[in-house]
Amino acid sequence: MISTYTCPNCTQLCQYYPDDAGQKTPCPHCGIWITIPESPDLEAVGVCIENDEPLPGFYKEAFLSGWKIFFNPSSIFAMVLIIALTCLKFFVGHTDFSFTAPGFRLQLPIGQIVTVVALGGMAWYYMELVTLASFDTKAMPAPEGCSGLELIMNIFRSLYYFIAVLIIVEMPFMILATVIEKITGPLPGAVRLILMFMGLFLFPMGILTVSAGRDIWMIFSPKYMLVPIKRAFPAYLPVAIMVIASVIFYFLTLGYSIQDKPASRIVVEFTATLAATVFSIVAFRSIGIFCKHYRCWLNQLDCD
User: Fold this and answer.
1) What is the pTM of this model?
2) Gap between the Cα atoms of 270 and 15, Å rounded
3) CA 149, 155, 159 angle in degrees (round to 5)?
4) Which residues lie closer than 8 Å to 158 by C-beta, 6 or more apart?
5) pLDDT of residue 70
């Protein structure tokens, strides 16, 4: 008989067999170590696991073997899903469905709605990639067991998290730029660019924080954002570079569409859009792999 308990960190419901009662295990949702309750009437308790040794093989798994996930048979449905979202945004997202009726023009924001849904679906996809990779799952995410309403909520929640994390990590540097301008005058474009990239450097850790089920306001805590980066800087640096490159690549292709362009241009832009999506999958999955290999240091933060 399977019993359940509630994780004290992310409040997600977890299953366990009676024989596992009293044992220590990581939460399957957020990764924090907990003691499984002796009976369903008791609460699970977070514990501190003292382990200063990261798992070996991070660079090989994240940057050399990461492409193997595309050839995993269990990832076929997930690949079809992400390609469908990409096609939806590219072919429909920029289409104007408005039409003129006698005496007035009816505005139909279908293209804008499709774009928001596609972007939200991709945000959910990337966050699930981070979570699955952190638990050593060799497959891509698929919305199995989700009702229609639950899937819609996940899409908009993920889009909110992406936008909120991006704003939060950029906010200190935007404020710094404003203060410097008040003192010294307008900043050169190069300085503004450096400040922007400094904010983007924190973006992967912010996404990891919300993907792990922690409160989004923990992004404001140096304990959760800066300490892990300092401890694992050589490993975090290439992850951050890949994620920043994927964000820039994706924004460069965001405006690509089929509107008023020759077929050759459409093929080139669609290929670039697909390439940006594939690169983003590898980049965001590397965040989860970083969490998997350096989870010992991340979990210690919850015990301090």
Assistant:
1) 0.79
2) 43
3) 145
4) 120, 123, 124, 126, 127
5) 82
